[in-house]
Amino acid sequence: MRVLLVNPRFRLPIDTRTTPHLGLAYLAAVSERRGDEVMVFDADVEDESIVDVVRRFEPHLVGITANTPQVKQAWRTAQAIKSVLDVPIVLGGPHPSVLAEESASRPEVDIVVRGEGEETWLELSATLESARQTAPQLTARELLDPQAHLLDEVLGISFQTADGNVHHNPARPPIADLDSLPWPAYHYFKMERYTNLQPAIDAVDGARSFSILTSRGCPYRCTYCSQSIMPQKWRARSPENILQEWRHLVEELGAQEIGVLDDSANIRVDRLMRLSDLLIEHHLNHVPWIFVNGIRADLASKELLARMKQAGLKRTAFGVESGDPEILRSINKRIDMDTIRRAFKNAKEVGLETIGFFIIGLPGETEETMERTIRFACELDPLIANFSMMTPYPGTKVYEIVQQHGRMLVKDWDEYVFFEGRARYEMGALTAELVERKWREAYRRFYLRPHRILRTLLRKDFWINWRRTFRLAYRTLFPRREREDLRKAIESV
Amino acid sequence: MPHVISTLCTREGDCVEVCPVDCIVPGDKNDPVWGKYFYIDPDTCIDCGACVPVCPPQAIFPLEELPPGHEADAEMNARYFREGPGYWDFNLEEQRRPR
Questions:
Q1: Residue of chain B whose Cα is closest to the Cα of A216
Q2: Is A220 in CB contact (< 8 Å) with chain B?
Q3: Does B46 fall in a domain?
Q4: How far is A227 from chain B (nearest CA, A)?
Q5: What is the extent of the structural domain holding B42?
Q6: Rounded average pLDDT over A72-86
Q7: Pairing mode, if any, of strands A89-92 and A61-65?
Q8: Smallest CA–CA distance from A234 into chain B, residue
């Protein structure tokens, strides 16, 4: 069967870096293993239109991924595909997983996959293939015929049958053995067109950068995070299994840097110790790697950080979120400020670069609590401080809180793009004006301290990438113009 | 601060399925001393709280939030690993309450 996997156009206004979509790379890999002919269309890097690709490739099944700011573009893409070919279209990813009914009810979407996609995608492919053996010209409408019951047994999907009823099949259990999955199939991507998520080496563009996922999920339930849409059970690959893929990335694909994309890589400290030992033992520690999404500060001992540094770790982020103890407690992060202080100190002492993630405008915040966050960021003084304005995504506890007690200011999923300089909600005394002011102040006060300016000017990558740095600063200072450009870009399929 | 399984435990076993660090162990149901409950190893627990919402009788608490009358349960969990049988190779389906 021919399967087409699509990443709709999605560019953050703050930057133009792109990276291959790991979710699609995994789906491409399982489809390839099933024996399907696979094509990946990543609208961020393609020259052709999706319509031309569909006409040429004539897929039997299409899968489109979508997070929240991308979902309307995913629907537009599905409409464009349907206009030239009657092919079953499957939508997956974080947003449809949470709001399955919304996408399943749309005429251009046939099936929604909720949660982890690989096994469901394989079963859908097998179901479609088997149905096509008896009816080679099977249409999407026939697949959804309520009398045919073709999809009744497929776990983890939602779909609307031709009679207008939306069906939500039972959830699929999480994949128990992650070692059984094939590696992401990067050979379906135009790798030369990507940059990376977070450069670990000085060359931002042109470096061969790859991502890796060593575990899935997170057992913690922080109120601002959409992890709650994933199974509560945190699952990890074995160090030996990770080593094999790592070796493949370095030795066969020529990786110059590797980004570990786990949500919570260090839940089991012994696992990372073992992985580090293996990377050292197998001489793979010359390629720098980073924790793009950060690790738990309370599970990052100095011993672990030092071992990972030896194994090639160049930089790690930590989710700090707030500098106010009460706010920290209210978001269920289950961490205290002293633990965070210790983690940054330890990371710096072993020679790691650090990133701090901070949130401005959490529910219950006041000018004073946001002030404490800014001061805490300056005290921790990571190499990079990243201040996000609280964006209540569907599926998070904060979203529920704001729906009940606050007022959403974003009216459209397209507007959920973060780093945009605009508050997303107001609640009580927490006004948009206050949050936006403190957010701008956070960046100004953190980066415009004399020693920070000097440190930035002394960094080699600042001079190598000065064009990008100034572009980024412009976009942060003048978000409106950028927002208009972004809207135009995403509306052109 | 680890989590604690209190004497409200009815041996449902859901906590074992979600624990990311495998630090929850049933007392052998045939053991007259330890057989009534499951236990959390306080030295290994990472305080993630994943076990709390899945516990049908709501028997699991963060140490600092143990309800009145259950303060001694924290020591009971610790003692199971310190002086009692501790970790063992168990079959969860055999140990959990039949459903």
A1: B20
A2: yes
A3: yes
A4: 12
A5: 3-88
A6: 97
A7: parallel
A8: B20
Q: A177-224: per-residue pLDDT in tens?
A: 999 999 999 999 998 888 765 665 555 555 688 999 999 999 999 999
b/e for A78-88, b at 16 or more Cβ within 10 A?
beebbeebebb
Report the distance separating Cα A243 and Cα A378, nearest Å: 37
Whether residue A219 and residue B47 make contact (CB cut-off 8 A), yes or no, is no
Distance CA A475, CA A31 (A): 39
Residue B58 belongs to a domain:
yes
Residue B53 to residue A232, Cβ atoms within 8 A: yes
- Chain B contact present for A336, CB below 8 A: no
* Tokens at A124, concatenated: 């859908």
Locus of tokens 């992985």: A275
Tokens representing residue A339 in the block: 């633990």
Mapped onto helix, strand or coil, the DSSP state of residue A340 is helix
Q: Which residues are CB-neighbours of B14 under 8 A, at least 6 positions away?
A: B51, B54, B55, B56
Chain B residues with CB inside 8 Å of A299's CB? 46
Closest CA to A294 of A385, A205, A365: A385
DSSP conformation letters of A173-236: PPPS-GGGSPPP-GGGS-GGG---SS-SSS--SS--EEEE--EE--S---TT-GGGGS-SS-EE
Question: CA-CA distance, A60 to A143, in Å (whole number)?
Answer: 12
Q: Is residue B96 one of the residues assigned to a domain? A: no
Helix (H/G/I), strand (E/B), else coil: A2? strand
Query: What's the domain count of chain B?
Result: 1
- What residues of chain A lie within 8 A of the CB of B48, using their CB? 219-220, 267, 334
- Binary contact (B49, A220; C-beta < 8 A): yes
Q: Say if pTM beats, i.e. exceeds, 0.80.
A: yes
Tell me which chain A residue has its CA closest to the CA of residue B62: A334
Whether A267 and B18 lie within 8 Å, measured CB to CB = no
In a domain, B98, yes or no: no
CA distance A343 to A433: 33
Interatomic CA distance for residues A20 and A193, integer angstroms: 9
Confidence class of residue A417 from pLDDT cuts 50, 70 and 90?
A: confident
Backbone angles phi, psi at A192, to 5 degrees: -70, -10
CATH number (domain holding residue B72): 3.30.70.20
User: Can you give the pLDDT at residue A16?
Assistant: 52
Task: Indicate yes or no: CB of B49 within 8 angstroms of CB of A221.
Answer: yes
pLDDT tens-digit series, residues A437-454? 999 999 999 999 988 888
